[in-house]
Amino acid sequence: MVEILNLTRGNPDPAAFPIEDLIRCGEENLKRDGKTVLQYGQAPGYVPLREWFAQYYAVKPGNIFMGNSSLEIFHFITQVELRPGIRAFVESPSYDRANTLLQRSGAEIVDIPMEADGMDLSVFEKELKKGIPALVYSIADFQNPVGITTSEAKRRQIATWAQQYGFWIIEDAPYRRLRYHGIDIPTFLSIAPDRVMQMSSLSKLLAPGLRMGYLVAPEAMINKLIKYAVDTYIGPVLTSQGMVYEYLRQGLLEPNIEKIKKIYGPRLDATLASLDKHIPGTIIARPEGGYFVSIKLPKGNTMDKLLPRADGIGLKLTDGRSFFINPADGNNFLRIPFCQISPDVMEEAIKRVASILD
Ligand SMILES: Cc1ncc(COP(=O)(O)O)c(C=O)c1O
Asked: Does the beta carbon of 213 sit less than 6 angstroms from any atom of ligand 1?
C-alpha cells in the first residue's frame, strides 16, 4: 500500500514538543498557584504571564492581551473593529483562516497582491484613495502561505500611511522568531507602536495545543478586547497559561527555539533543493524562515486537475484557492509546509507532485 503523504496544514513536528518539561512546569504552577489558575477571572490573561510578556516587549502589562490562540484574538479584533460598510485590506494570498474571519465580519475585504518584498504599494495607494480601511492585516515575516518577508522600506511606507490616515496595522508574527538565514527586519510594532496591534503565539515555538496567543497593542484597544472577552468567555484557559508562564520563567523558551530552528532550517533548505530539482522554476519566493514555501504550478496545470490526481497517488494537498479572497487567483497556487516532514519524505512528496503535473 502507498504511504499517504500530507502537505496540508502548517503543523509543527510533534517529535520536537518538550513534553517532560511541560509536565513539570504544569505541575509546579498548579502546586504554587492552583487556587488562581483554577478559578474564574483575569480576562486579559494570567497576571504573572502578562507581566512576563510586558517585560519581554518593553511595554506595560496594560498593553498585553492573551487569549486562547492568536486566531481567537484576531476573531475578537474583527468583531470589535469590523462590520458591513467598513473596509479591511489583506495581503493576497494570505492565511486562509484569517481570510475567513475577515469575510465573516461582513466588512468589505480588499485584497492587495503580494510582490517579492510585500504588498504592491501602488495598488495599496489606489485603494486608500477609494476608502480608508479600519485595518490592514499583514504577516510581515515569512508569510503564510508564500514565505515572503515584507521589506523595511514597505513596512515604513505602510506605517506612515497608517499614521497619516489613522488605520490599524494588524501584524501577525507567529513565525518571526523562526529565521534560519539572513537578518531581522524591524517590526511594524517598533516602527509605529501607536498604530499597530502585533499578534503572536506559542503555537509555532512551543506547542499549538496550549492555545496560547497574545497581542501587544495600545491600552485603549486592549481594554476594548478585554470587555469583548469577558462578554464572550469570561476569561481564557489559565491552566495552560500557568504552565507556559513557568516554562518561560525558567528560561526554557530560547533553547527550545534554537532546537527547533536546527530541525526546521535544514528542512527548508531541503525543500527548496527538491523543488529546484524536480519542479524547477516554480518557487514564488525563497523564504529565509517560517513554515512554508509556495510554488506557481507550471502553465497548463490547475488545482482542479491536480487535487483529484493527488488523491489517487496518496498525496494530500491544500487547495491553493483557499488563500485568495478571489479564489480563481489561486487555481495555480500550491503551498508546501515543510516543518513536519523529514527531507527524504519531502523529496518523495515533491516527486509525487511532479509526477502528476502536465
Ligand atoms: C499567520 C498565522 N496566524 C495565526 C495562526 C494560528 O496560530 P494560533 O495557533 O495561535 O491560533 C497561524 C497558524 O498556522 C498562522 O499561520
From this structure: yes
Calculate how far, in angstroms, residue 70's C-alpha sits from the geometric centre of ligand 1: 6
Residues 85 and 206 in one domain: yes
* Ligand 1 atom closest to Cα of residue 70: 10
The CB of 214 under 6 Å from ligand 1? The reply is no
Q: What is the pLDDT of residues 298-330, one digit of tens each?
A: 999 999 999 999 999 999 999 999 999 999 999
Residue 36 CB partners (closer than 8 Å, separation 6+): 42, 46, 238, 242
Kindly state whether residues 245 and 351 are assigned to the same domain: no
Residue 38's alpha-carbon distances to 21, 41, 42, 197, 235, in angstroms, are 21, 9, 11, 29, 11
* Residue 128 near residue 165 (C-beta atoms within 8 A): yes
pLDDT at 224 over 70: yes
State whether 146 and 203 are in the same domain.
yes
Phi, psi of 295 (to 5 degrees): -125, 155
- The pLDDT tens digits of the residues spanning 163-203 come to 999 999 999 999 999 999 999 999 999 999 999 999 999 99
Last residue of a domain, one of 192, 221, 249: 249
69 lines ligand 1 (CB under 6 A): yes
223 plus 332 within the same structural domain? no
Q: What is the DSSP letter of 60?
A: -
